[in-house]
Amino acid sequence: ENKDEKIKSKIKNSLHEVVGQKIESPKNKQMKISAKEYFGFNEESTPKQTEIRATRITEPIKNTSIWGTLNSLLRQLIFEDLRGKLGGTYSPHVRLDKNLGHHAWSVSVGVKPELTKQAEEIIKNNILKIALADKKDKDLKSRFEETQKMRLENILTLESSAGEIADFAIDDLANFEKIKNVNEGLRERLAVTFEDVCSLAKKELLPEKLFWFIEEP
């Protein structure tokens, strides 16, 4: 065996060892801390916003483009609700970190402390909007189609940072033993359906499965 074959064999064996592990829901659903007390900030350096983060450790799925479309759709819905109901242009972040054997999903946003509860509800309600969507929900399905179109255009124009390209390449090598080209990525995104996105949200992101981290000023 040459060096490359040994590396591939090691990756394949590692995948065999970790795939299939069961991911449980967290026993503790929330942790709340004061940034000022926990980190010892003085008045000048204490953050002015409350940071809200919901996380979930999930089992890997083969077509991670489903996560990509779900995250893009969810981010847009949360952003619009935050702006419309709280009157601010708060910018939520929704991401998936892919690791060998598990994925780490998260949504986070910083808001004024007095708006914490409202922001939590907005996040929960929009997750449920997708997770419990009726297949005949024309409005949400239309939003899904817009998101799909945007993501397809992005991959065709290669609108990714150097860091993202490197991350994607490492993920491909670890999970598929090769780096996927643009056509393969395009096929994966084209294969994502509205039902795929809703089913994944229902399987992984229902409120009882999330862990909430609240960092107050």
Explain what this protein looks like in three dimensions.
The structure is a single chain. This protein is 53% helix and 17% strand. The chain is an alpha+beta fold and 217 residues long. Helix 3 (65-86) crosses helix 8. The radius of gyration is 19 Å and the shape is globular.
Condensed summary:
The chain is 53% helix and 17% strand.
Distance between the termini: 57 Å
Q: How much beta, percentage-wise?
A: 15-25%
Q: What is the rounded Rg?
A: 19 Å
Give the strand order of the largest sheet, numbering strands 1, 2, ... along the chain. Answer: 1-5-2-4-3
Question: What is the approximate shape?
Answer: globular
Number of strands: 5
Assembly type of the shown chains?
single chain
Sheet bearing the most strands, described?
Answer: 5 strands, mixed
Please estimate the helix content: 40-55%
Order of helical and strand elements: HEHEHEEHHHHHE
Mean pLDDT: 82
Q: Count of helices?
A: 8
* Backbone structural class: alpha+beta
Which blocks of ≥5 consecutive residues have pLDDT under 50? 14-20
